[in-house]
Amino acid sequence: MNIAVSRRQFLVGAGAGMAGTTLGALGFGDVESAYAQAIRPYKLARTTETRNTCTYCSVACGIIMYSKGDLSKGDKAEIIHIEGDPDHPTNRGTLCPKGAALLDFVRSGTRLKYPMVRKPGSDSSNAYPGIRCWIA
User: Which among 53, 37, 43 has a CA at the least distance from the CA of 85?
Assistant: First the structure.
């Protein structure tokens, strides 16, 4: 099956494809953002929104944490989603790769949840079993 295409037809088709791609890249094709806006309310329904600051570096980017669990009923709140704060002047909704991985940091099994205190003159091996190294 051979399709005969003249040089003029080829250039017209290539120009139309380039124009469509350019319009989409300039933001006139809002299909993706409309789709994301339609999904977001369902994903974050019945969650509590908390604004905070990223703890990784000294830039102090703003983050929004979404948690499920009603604290007034005695439930334990569980963070289900973390994203950049679009109203924060430092990062304007964007996060670095470390900030984007904050949810994994929060859910890590090796994360310290309580401060460790070593009393002066105590034996560090008996203070916290399983911890072999102390930095004085």
Answer: 53
CB 67 within 8 A of CB 77: yes
Tens digits of per-residue pLDDT, 18-59?
888 887 777 666 666 666 676 666 777 778 888 888 878 878
The residues with which 16 forms a beta bridge, in sequence order, are: none
Cα-Cα-Cα-Cα torsion 129, 132, 133, 134, nearest 10 degrees, comes to 20
The pLDDT tens digits for 95-124 are 888 888 888 888 888 888 788 887 787 765
Which of 121, 82, 124 has its CA nearest to residue 103?
A: 82
**What is 62-95 written as a DSSP string?**
EEEEEEES-GGGTPPPEEEEEEE-TT-TTTTT--
Coil, strand or helix at 130? coil
Longest pairwise C-alpha distance within the chain: 90
